[in-house]
């Protein structure tokens, strides 16, 4: 599927790659699952790049609509799990 990933032109190349890695991790949670701590590391890096809650909501909403997933539910579920547990959600 062709998607226009929501990114900022103000980010460095490395930051764009890290944000895209987070988006991929969200998709992975909804497709095959991912270990909780690994996912939260992607989210932690995403939050370093996007510290604003309103910007996070805006970017995630755009991504969620295109990918038919939910960043919010992926992060919420990961935070509820214990270290070492797998997280997997369905669309």
TrEMBL record:
Originating species: Alkalihalobacillus alcalophilus ATCC 27647 = CGMCC 1.3604
High-level lineage: Bacteria, Bacillati, Bacillota, Bacilli, Bacillales
Pfam family, one: UPF0223
Superkingdom of origin organism: Bacteria
SUPFAM superfamilies per record: BH2638-like
Protein name: Uncharacterized protein
InterPro entries for this protein: BH2638-like_sf, UPF0223
Cited NCBIfam families: PRK04387.1
């Amino acid at each position: 599927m062709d998607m226009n990933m929501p990114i900022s032109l103000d980010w460095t190349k490395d930051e764009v790659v890290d944000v895209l890695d987070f988006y991929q991790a969200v998709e992975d949670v909804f497709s095959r699952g991912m270990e909780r701590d690994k996912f939260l590391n992607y989210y932690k890096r995403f939050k370093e790049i996007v510290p604003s809650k309103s910007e996070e909501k805006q970017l995630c909403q755009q991504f969620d609509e295109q990918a038919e997933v939910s960043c919010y539910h992926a992060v919420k579920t990961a935070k509820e799990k214990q270290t070492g547990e797998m997280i997997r959600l369905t669309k």
